[in-house]
Amino acid sequence: MSSNWRRTIGNIRSFIGNSTGGLRGGSNLASWAVAGTLAYFLWVKPSQNLKREQQEKALAASLDPNRYIEKRKPIPDPQETGLIYGKKNKGKKPDE
């Protein structure tokens, strides 16, 4: 009876060891620390900064709508007509 739970514990330890790439001890802990640090700085922190900026922008716009200024420049329209979905003036006829 006692060997049954020991076998179960051994199977769980084996599964965890195999799922972490078979690394054991300090190298396992170090690799998880490096992976966690990279994940934090590449995914978690940028998304938190983006949320914070959006909240600050929304707060500034709600407090005084006349004072809020968008920092990005508008994208210029490359067409000659100035219409986004308009027809381009392909051939201008000179005035005679």
From TrEMBL:
Segments for region (Disordered): 69-96
TM region positions: 21-43
Compositional bias ranges of the Basic residues kind: 87-96
Highest rank taxon of the organism: Eukaryota
UniProt entry keywords in alphabetical sequence: Membrane, Transmembrane, Transmembrane helix
Protein name: Uncharacterized protein
